[in-house]
Amino acid sequence: xxxxxxxxxxxxxxxxxxxxxxxxxxxxxxxxxxxxxxxxx
Length: 41
Fold this sequence. Notes:
It contains two helices and no strands.
């Protein structure tokens, strides 16, 4: 689910739509979660 959210947000960025600060912070949160999961391995 989180990967879908991230890909959707990145598609928005690529298309040049306005990005809200909330969207950017959510990307950072998901990215941190992914890094944390990778760190466990």
